[in-house]
Amino acid sequence: MTALLEVQHISKRFGGVAAVHDVSFSVAAGEIVGLMGANGAGKTTLFNLISGAFRPDSGSVLLDGREIQGQPPHRICRQGIGRTYQIVKPFPNLSVRENVAVGLIFGAGRPRGGADLRQREEEILEETGLRVLAHQRAAALTLGGRKRLELARALATSPRLLMLDEVMAGLTPAESGRALEMLQSIHARRGLAILVVEHNLRAMMQLCSRVVVLHHGEKIAEGTPETITRDPRVISAYLGAA
Predict the structure, then answer these.
(1) Contact 111, 123 (CB under 8 A)
(2) Residues 2, 58: one domain?
(3) In a domain, 229, yes or no
(4) 183 falls within a domain
(5) Domain span holding position 18
(6) How many angstroms separate the CA atoms of 92 and 115, rounded?
(7) What is the count of structural domains for the chain?
């Protein structure tokens, strides 16, 4: 498969700490790849390097074969990379619909007018299960609702690569199950590539065709979910067992 995203020997240090060191992997168009590791493994730092929040010390990030590392986040977003954040921060005093509109207006595929804006708002609200909450203030949503809104805002930017940073964290098992079904439905409908960080191992196994494992900022394994769960290095690093 042709690579949509290529991360090549990327590294980032904070003082004397190597948060990410010499990490390489790729994501093909339409592929779902998991990024796994214990807390502090470097997963969110890697997301920040790809999305432009951090500038790498060395290495390259390529989108469609063109280097994007070091560009500001808004430029990377408009080239087709959308992301969510571990700590969701919607515009609290705007409605759910207005939050989605912000993503549409400032993302990669800007609406052609008011009618186009409204139609695309409705589509995103429907596929994320937020239509009944469209006029509610974002500040009044439950955690599950805010997680859905975070996903809706990322989808509104018209990504070709959607990066999900623990969208199921803090959800109940029932909410996690619904979130998994929603992500599978969105992927089937839109055909976009997804790079997902998640501690819910069952969800990762069901969602991803391939998993990359980080440990102390370095890639220690890559393969199918079945291969990863049997890898002794992953068992030792991630589960703390020999």
Answers:
(1) no
(2) yes
(3) yes
(4) no
(5) 1-80+161-167+190-242
(6) 25
(7) 2
Q: How far apart are CA 217 and CA 219, in angstroms?
A: 7
Residue 185: enclosing H or E segment and its boundaries?
A: helix 173-190
Rounded to two decimals, the pTM is 0.92
Distance separating alpha carbons of residues 33 and 195, to the nearest angstrom: 5
DSSP state of 221: E
For residues 232 and 54, the answer to whether their CB atoms sit within 8 Å is no
Task: Spell out the per-residue pLDDT of the chain, length 242, in tens.
Answer: 679 999 999 999 999 899 999 999 999 999 999 999 988 899 999 999 999 999 999 999 999 999 999 999 999 999 999 999 988 989 999 999 999 999 998 887 777 778 888 999 999 999 999 999 999 999 999 999 999 999 999 999 999 999 999 988 888 889 889 999 999 999 999 999 999 998 877 888 899 999 999 999 999 999 999 999 889 988 887 666 55
- Residue 212: helix, strand or coil by DSSP? strand
Closest CA relative to residue 223, chosen from 239, 207, 237, 211:
211
- Pairwise CA distance, residues 225 & 203, whole Å: 11
Residue 177 inside a domain? The answer is: no
Indicate if 112 and 67 belong to the same structural domain.
no
Question: Can you list the positions of beta strands (E) in 203-242?
Answer: 210-215, 218-223
Q: Is the Cβ–Cβ distance between 5 and 195 less than 8 Å? A: yes
Q: How far apart are CA 121 and CA 101, in angstroms?
A: 7
132 CB neighbour count, 10 Å cutoff: 9
